[in-house]
Design brief:
CATH superfamily of the largest domain: Glycosidases
Catalytic activity: Hydrolysis of terminal non-reducing N-acetyl-D-glucosamine residues in N-acetyl-alpha-D-glucosaminides
GO molecular function: alpha-N-acetylglucosaminidase activity
CATH class of the largest domain: Alpha Beta
Number of helices: 34
Strand order of the largest sheet: 8-7-17-16-15-14-13-9
Keywords: Glycoprotein, Glycosidase, Hydrolase, Membrane, Signal, Transmembrane, Transmembrane helix
CATH architecture of the largest domain: Alpha-Beta Barrel
Strand content: 5-15%
EC number: 3.2.1.50
CATH topology of the largest domain: TIM Barrel
Low-confidence stretches: 1-21, 566-579, 784-804, 806-851
Enzyme class: hydrolase
C-alpha cells in the first residue's frame, strides 16, 4: 500500500508542462538566484534547523545541495533512502536546489511519512509524537520521491505584518519564524526591520538633524504606515535604543534568511520625506498629501510630504538609501528585489498615463543606480483598492514604465479578487498569486480552501500566464493554521488538491491520530467556515469587538439585519446596503458549525492532552459564541426600539455575560492573552519612558488605533481588534455596559438616546485604558470554561454548577430563537461581576434591573386574564371547522339534486339554492376563523409586527404534505388592533348579507318594468357598498 501511495503522491506533484514557462521567467529566476550562500552553508543551516526542531533525530537525515543536476533548471527536492546505515547514521537523504528546498523536503517527509504537524506556537505548535525512533524511520519508494516547484517563488508577508505581528519580536522569535518559513518552502520573504536606522543616517547626510526626524517616524506599532507615508509622528518618537536594536535585528534576520538560500526583499525609497527637507531644498518638487483617516485633519499626524519621483533629488535619496543598506549587511548585493509602494492608497496627482509612466521610471531608476540588478517588487493592492483611478491605461503605464523582467507584481488579493484575470496577466509583467486572507491581525476562523487549492493552478495554466510564484500576504499571522498549511503546500503542488482527502490527512497529523468525530467535524468546517465564496474581505466586525458607535437604528433596519444574519445559506453575506448599523460578516450556517463543535467535544476524551486540539476547541467555541452575541445585541436593540425596558435589560445582561464567558474561556489557553502582547512590548524597553511608550503603542493599536477627539472615536477604532482575555473583560465589556446603561436610562426617562454623552464617557475611558499600566496574566489560568471540559490536569469548574454552554449554542443554532441560550444565561447562579478598573474616574455600572413594584404585580395579574381569550379562540376555530364541514354537505346535496334533475329532465332550481346555502355557511366559517385568529394575534401571540418571513415561526413547516407553503403571512392574518379585527370581520359579514340577498331574490317575482328597475338598483347599491367599504380601509 505504501509504494502505491508514494507513487500517487509523486504523480500529483509533477509540474504542469506548458509553454507559459517562458525564457523571461527563466531569466528572472536566474537573476534572483545569483550569488546565493555557498552550498555548505545552506546544508549546515538545514541541519541546525533539524537540531532545533527534532534534536533526537539530528543524525537521522543527510542534507545535500543538488550538484548532480537532479532538478535541472527547476527548483526541487529529492528524498531517497540510505541503505545499510548503522545506528546513529543517516537513514534518509534529502537533496535540493537550495537550503529552503532541503528544509521543505524534510518537512514533506515528516508530514507524509511520519505524520508530523508543524504550525505556529500560538496556534497549537508542533505535533512530533508520531515520529518513529531513530533507526526505524519509514522508507520511501526505492526510486525516491522528487517534488518540483511548478513556479520558482514563494513570497511571504504584507508590509503591515511587521506592525501587526512582528513589532515586539526578539531574535529568538525571529529564529523560529525563519525556521517555519524554510520548512514551508518560502524563499522570497520581506525583510523590513531596522530601516529607520538607515533612513536617519541618509537624511543626516542630506543635512537634516535628529530633531528634524522626531515627528517623521511613527511609533513602533505604527511604523508600517509611516513608511508608506500615510501618517507621521503617531506613537513616536523613536529612541536611539530602538533604532540600534532594530538595525541589529535586521542584520541577524537577513543573514539567517541568506544562509537558507532565501532571497530577502528589502525596502527602497518611495518618496516619503520629512517636512524639514522642504525647507532645506526649497526648489525640490515636494507636495503635501491629503488626510489619511484622522478625525479632523490634524496636521500633527496626517498629510505627509511626498517628493516627486521626477525630481533629481528623488534619485539621489533612493540611491543613497540602497547604498547604506549594502554597507550595513554583508553580501547584501546579492539581494536584488526591492519593495516600493509609492502609490499605496496615495493616488498620483494626475491620471495622465505619460506622467504615471515617468513616475514609475524614476522610482526604478533610484533603485537601479544603487543596485544595477535591482528588481522592483510592487504590491498590486492599489489596483484593487483604488480601481476607479487605475484603469487599463494607467495600469499599463505604470507596469510598462520599467523594463519587462525588472518588476514583479504581487496580486495581493488573488484568493478573492484576482487582478490577473482583468489585466491580461498584468500586461505581460511577471506576478505572484497571493492570498491576503487577514486584516488587522483579527482573530476569526475564516478561509476559502477551494480557492487556495485551485486558484494558483488555474492562474498558472491560463493562456499566456506570467505567474512566477505564490505568496501569503496576510496583515497578521498566528491564526487559522489549516489555511496557511494548505497555502504553503501550493508552492509544490502541480495539480489541484482534493481538499476533502487532504483534510483527513491534515486532521490525523494535527492531532497525532485519526479520530472519526474530528474528521466529520473538519468536513463540516470545510463546507462552512472555510468555504466563504461571497467575495467579501473578512474583517472581523462582530459586535463584541467592533461595537457600533451610533444611536440605535430603526426597527426596519434591525429586522433587515436580523434577516441577513439568520439566513442559513453558507454562501450568503450581508452585502452593502443602506443601513445605519454595521453588519458582521456571516457566510455560513451557525447550526452546522455548532454541530462541528459538538463533534470536537465528543472527541475530547481521546485527545485531551493535545495542545493543537485544545487550541482548535477554544477557537471554535470562541467563534460560535461571538456569532451568537451578534443576535443577542440585535435583540437588545429591538427591545429598545419597542420601549421594552425589562427586555432590554435582560438582553443586555446576556450580551455582557457572553463577553465574560469568552474572557474566561480564552484565559484558559496561553494563546489568547492580552498580557503576552503587552509583556513583549515592554520587554524591548531599556528605560522607563520607553516602557511606557511601548505599552501605549501596544494598547492603542488593538483598540482606538489612531487619533480621536472628546466626542469622535478614531476612524480606525477596532480595526486591529483581538479576542484576547483581559481585553474582553477590561475594554470590550465596560464599553458595552456603558452603552446599554445609556439605553436603559433613555427608556426610563422617556428621552432620546444621548449619543454625545455616551461618546464622551466611552472615549474618555478608552484613552485612560490606553495609558494604563495594569498588568495582565501571561500564562493560562485554571480552566473554568462554562462548558463540559475535556480532561486536563488543571482544576475545572464542575459542569453541574451551570447549565451546559454547549447546550445553549446547540439550541440556538437549531432555530429556537435563542430560547435555550436565554435559559442558560438566566439560570446562571452568579451575578454579573462588577470589574473595578484601576483607572481613575471610572465606576462600572451593570445594566439596570428594577425590582417589580406592587403596581406592576397587579398589572401582571390583570394582564394574565388575556389567556381567557383562548376559550374564545378555541370555540371560534371549532365553529369554523363545523361550518366548513356543513358547507361540504350542502355541496354534495347540490350535486345529488343536479344529477336527479338530469335523469328526470326536470330542473327545479334547488341546486342553486343548495350552492348558495353552502357559500353562506363557508362565509360564516370564514368569519369565525378570522375572528379566532384575530383574537389570538391580539391577546396571545408574541410575534412582533412586521417580523420577516424567514423568522416567522408560524410559517415554518406550515404546508399540506409539502404543498402550498406560505412565503409570508396572508394580509388578512396581519391583525394588530381591535379595529382591524372588526373591519375584517365586518367585510365578511357584508358578504354574508349579500349572499342572503341573492338567496331571497330567487323568490322575487318580476312582473313589471318597475320591479326590474328596483331589482337593478338593489344590485347596484350592494356593489357600491362593497366598493366603498373596500376603499375606506385601503392603505
Amino acid at each position: 500500500m505504501r509504494p502505491f501511495f508514494v507513487l500517487l503522491l509523486s504523480l500529483t506533484l509533477l509540474p504542469f508542462s506548458s509553454p507559459w514557462r517562458s525564457s523571461l521567467e527563466e531569466e528572472l529566476a536566474s537573476n534572483l538566484n545569483k550569488r546565493r550562500a555557498p552550498p555548505e552553508m545552506q546544508e549546515t543551516a538545514t541541519a541546525l534547523l533539524l537540531q532545533r526542531l527534532l534534536p533526537s533525530h539530528s543524525s537521522s537525515f543527510k542534507f545535500q545541495i543538488d550538484s548532480k543536476g537532479i532538478c535541472g533548471k527547476s527548483a526541487c527536492f529529492y528524498i531517497s533512502n540510505i541503505y545499510n546505515s548503522k545506528h546513529g547514521q543517516p537513514e534518509i537523504l534529502i537533496q535540493g536546489s537550495t537550503g529552503v528546498e532541503l528544509s521543505s523536503g524534510l518537512h514533506w517527509y515528516l508530514k507524509y511519512w511520519c505524520g508530523v504537524h508543524i504550525s505556529w506556537n500560538k496556534t497549537g505548535g508542533v505535533q512530533l509524537g508520531s515520529v518513529p525512533s531513530p533507526g526505524s524511520l519509514p522508507r520511501v519508494d526505492k526510486n525516491g520521491v522528487k517534488v518540483v516547484r511548478p513556479v520558482p517563488w514563494s513570497y511571504y508577508q504584507n508590509v503591515v505584518t511587521s506592525s501587526y505581528s512582528f513589532v515586539w519580536w526578539t531574535w529568538g522569535r525571529w529564529e523560529k519564524e525563519i525556521d517555519w518559513m524554510a520548512l514551508q518552502g518560502i524563499n522570497l520573504p520581506l525583510a523590513f526591520n531596522g530601516q529607520e536606522y538607515i533612513w536617519q543616517n541618509v537624511f543626516m547626510d542630506f543635512n537634516l538633524s535628529r530633531e528634524d526626524l522626531t515627528d517623521f517616524f511613527g511609533g513602533p506599532a505604527f511604523l508600517a504606515w509611516a513608511r508608506m507615508g500615510n501618517l507621521h509622528g503617531w506613537g513616536g518618537p523613536l529612541s536611539e535604543n530602538w533604532l540600534n536594536d532594530q538595525s541589529i535585528l535586521q542584520k541577524l534576520t537577513v543573514t539567517r534568511m541568506m544562509e537558507f538560500g532565501m532571497t530577502p526583499v528589502l525596502p527602497s525609497f518611495s518618496g516619503n520625506v520629512p517636512a524639514a527637507l522642504k525647507k532645506l531644498y526649497p526648489s525640490a518638487k515636494i507636495t503635501r498629501l491629503g488626510d489619511w483617516n484622522t478625525v479632523n485633519g490634524d496636521k500633527r499626524w496626517c498629510c505627509t510630504y511626498l517628493l516627486d519621483p521626477s525630481d533629481p533629488l528623488f534619485i539621489e535619496l533612493g540611491k543613497a538609501f540602497i547604498n547604506k543598506q549594502i554597507e550595513g549587511i554583508d553580501n547584501s548585493n546579492q539581494m536584488i528585489p526591492y519593495r516600493s509602494d509609492t502609490f499605496n492608497e496615495n493616488a498620483p496627482p494626475t491620471n495622465d498615463p505619460s506622467y504615471i509612466s515617468s513616475l514609475g521610471a524614476a522610482v526604478y531608476k533610484a533603485m537601479s543606480q544603487g543596485n544595477k540588478d535591482a528588481i522592483w517588487l510592487m504590491q498590486g493592492w492599489l489596483f484593487s483598492s483604488d480601481a476607479a483611478f487605475w484603469k487599463p491605461p494607467q495600469m499599463k503605464a505604470l507596469l510598462h514604465s520599467v523594463p519587462i523582467g525588472k518588476m514583479i507584481v504581487l496580486d495581493l488579493f488573488a484568493d478573492v479578487k484576482p487582478i490577473w484575470k482583468q489585466s491580461s496577466q498584468f500586461y505581460g509583467v511577471p506576478y505572484v498569486w497571493c492570498m491576503l486572507h487577514n486584516f488587522g491581525g483579527n482573530i476569526e476562523m475564516y478561509g476559502i480552501l477551494d480557492a487556495i487549492s485551485s486558484g494558483p493552478i488555474d492562474a498558472r495554466r491560463s493562456s499566456n500566464s506570467t505567474m512566477v510564484g505564490v505568496g501569503m500576504c496576510m496583515e497578521g499571522i498566528e491564526h487559522n493554521p489549516v489555511v496557511y498549511e494548505l497555502m504553503s503546500e501550493m508552492a509544490f503542488r502541480g495539480e489541484k488538491v482534493q481538499v476533502k482527502e487532504w483534510l483527513k490527512s491534515y486532521s490525523k497529523r494535527r492531532y497525532g491520530r485519526a479520530i472519526t468525530e474530528i474528521d466529520e467535524a473538519w468536513q463540516i468546517l470545510y463546507q462552512t467556515i472555510y468555504s466563504c465564496t461571497d467575495g467579501i474581505a473578512d474583517h472581523n466586525k462582530d459586535y463584541i469587538v467592533e461595537f457600533p458607535d451610533m444611536s440605535p437604528p430603526t426597527k426596519q433596519s434591525l429586522l433587515s439585519i436580523r434577516r441577513d444574519l439568520s439566513r442559513m445559506s453558507p454562501r450568503f453575506f450581508l452585502r452593502e446596503i443602506s443601513l445605519q448599523l454595521p453588519q458582521p460578516h456571516m457566510w455560513y450556517s451557525q447550526k452546522e458549525v455548532v454541530n462541528a463543535l459538538k463533534l470536537f467535544l465528543d472527541a475530547g476524551n481521546s485527545i485531551s492532552g493535545s495542545l493543537t486540539y485544545r487550541y482548535d476547541l477554544v477557537d471554535l467555541t470562541r467563534q460560535a459564541l461571538s456569532k451568537l452575541a451578534n443576535q443577542v445585541y440585535l435583540d437588545a436593540l429591538t427591545a429598545y426600539e419597542m420601549n421594552y425596558l425589562n427586555t432590554l435589560n435582560l438582553h443586555s445582561k446576556k450580551f455582557l455575560g457572553i463577553i465574560e464567558d469568552l474572557d474566561t474561556l480564552l484565559a484558559s489557553d496561553d494563546n489568547f492573552l492580552l498580557g503576552t502582547w503587552l509583556k513583549d512590548a515592554k520587554s524591548l524597553a531599556m528605560t522607563s519612558s520607553e516602557e511606557k511608550q511601548y505599552e501605549w503603542n501596544a494598547r492603542t493599536q488593538v483598540t482606538m488605533w489612531y487619533d480621536n477627539t472628546k466626542t469622535n472615536q478614531s476612524k480606525l477604532h477596532d480595526y486591529a481588534n483581538k479576542f484576547w482575555s483581559g481585553l474582553l473583560k477590561d475594554y470590550y465589556l465596560p464599553r458595552a455596559s456603558m452603552y446599554f446603561n445609556y439605553l436603559s436610562e433613555s427608556l426610563k426617562a422617556n428621552k432620546s438616546f444621548k449619543i454625545e454623552e455616551w461618546r464622551k464617557s466611552w472615549i474618555s475611558y478608552s484613552n485612560m485604558w490606553q495609558s494604563s499600566t495594569k498588568e495582565y496574566p501571561t500564562a493560562a489560568t485554571a480552566s473554568r470554561c462554562p462548558f463540559k471540559p475535556f480532561k486536563t490536569n488543571k482544576p475545572l469548574r464542575s459542569p453541574t454548577q451551570r447549565p451546559s454552554l454547549f447546550h445553549c449554542l446547540a439550541s440556538s443554532a437549531h432555530g429556537e430563537s435563542n430560547a435555550s441560550a436565554n435559559a442558560f444565561l438566566e439560570s446562571d447562579p452568579r451575578s454579573l461581576s462588577q470589574p473595578q478598573s484601576d483607572l481613575p474616574g471610572f465606576r462600572y455600572k451593570g445594566p439596570v434591573h428594577p425590582e417589580p413594584s406592587t403596581e406592576s404585580k397587579i398589572e401582571r395579574v390583570i394582564f394574565d386574564f388575556r389567556f381567557l381569550a383562548l376559550l374564545a379562540v378555541g370555540g371560534s376555530l371549532a365553529g369554523s371547522l363545523l361550518c366548513f364541514l356543513n358547507g361540504c354537505i350542502y355541496i354534495v346535496e347540490a350535486y345529488k339534486v343536479y344529477w336527479t334533475s338530469c335523469v328526470k329532465g326536470v330542473h327545479s332550481g334547488q341546486m342553486v339554492l343548495r350552492l348558495v346555502e353552502a357559500i353562506d355557511v363557508y362565509l360564516a366559517g370564514t368569519v369565525m376563523l378570522i375572528f379566532g385568529m384575530g383574537l389570538y394575534g391580539l391577546f396571545i401571540s408574541n410575534a412582533p409586527p412586521g417580523v420577516p418571513p424567514v423568522l416567522d415561526r408560524a410559517l415554518k413547516g406550515s404546508s399540506l404534505f409539502g404543498m402550498f407553503s406560505l412565503k409570508e403571512r396572508p394580509k388578512w392574518m396581519q391583525i394588530s388592533s381591535l379595529d382591524e379585527l372588526k373591519t375584517k370581520v365586518g367585510h365578511v359579514i357584508v358578504m354574508i348579507l349579500l349572499v342572503k340577498m341573492f338567496e331571497r331574490s330567487k323568490m322575487v317575482v318580476i312582473t313589471t318594468g318597475l320591479d326590474l328597475l328596483s331589482y337593478s338598483v338593489c344590485i347596484f347599491l350592494s356593489s357600491a357598498s362593497l366598493y366603498i367599504l373596500h376603499n375606506l380601509h385601503k392603505e
